[in-house]
């Protein structure tokens, strides 16, 4: 058995399929998962202080533990604050600075889980939709705090951002904060993403671009695990299926990069030795 890693998906043990989705992934041939916490509002939590973030984080730890039991490899938690939270906080009367401070506090709580060994990496970013300049500046400030925490805890940071291919400036900010830029991961990336390490959505065209570029990359579904949106964004079987397709197309070296070499470089995990 060869490692097959989905680098970014969500599993919801309260409202969604939870561990059952991890079983579906395993049945399709998948071995390892990086499970990103869903935003707090999915659990009916309107965050107002730092400890409110723990609800979503703890649900993620629970579903990761259950998923590891059914996988031939294992799952890891990636914890952090969704950048769209800033808009929700503004709607509740916060100004951009106050919202940024609360989001930074949520990241600091997530970093505690990394420090204790309960989480593998952090998640941050900035809105993928148009916002006012002061909101954009505050969001970038939150993201730069994530890089400071990533440097402090010696861990990767996954980013949820706007679309595009050139994020060199963002990778530069991480390097300025003391992170290795390859440990910055652009979630939902295009196949030719520049700057961070791309986590490429499992679309055939984008995967082919990433494979032919010859650079480090990983593969993801961004499965949301929402019963009202089944299969969104892509279903849990997709990465194993796309992996088989890439192998049939002759991209063996690219698959070694995606499922073994890049996860080792970015997260310090050995997907081969963790197979059972």
Summed up:
The chain is α/β, with parallel strands linked by helices. It is built from 9 helices and 8 strands.
Descriptive account of the structure:
The relative contact order is 0.16. With 276 residues, the chain is of the alpha/beta class. It is globular. 44% of the residues lie in helices and 14% in strands. The termini are close together. The mean pLDDT is 97.
CATH topology: TIM Barrel
Structural class, please? alpha/beta
Mean pLDDT across all residues, rounded? 97
Per CATH, the architecture is Alpha-Beta Barrel
Main CATH class: Alpha Beta
Work out the helicity level. Answer: 40-55%
Series of H and E elements: EHEHEHHEHEHEEHEHH
How many strands, what sense, and barrel or not for the largest sheet? Answer: 8 strands, parallel
Strand content: 5-15%
Give a count of the beta strands, DSSP E runs of length 2 or more: 8
Estimate the global geometry from the Cα principal axes. Answer: globular
Q: Spans of 5+ residues with little confidence (pLDDT < 50)?
A: none
Number of domains: 1
Gyration radius over CA: 17 Å
N/C terminus separation = 9 Å
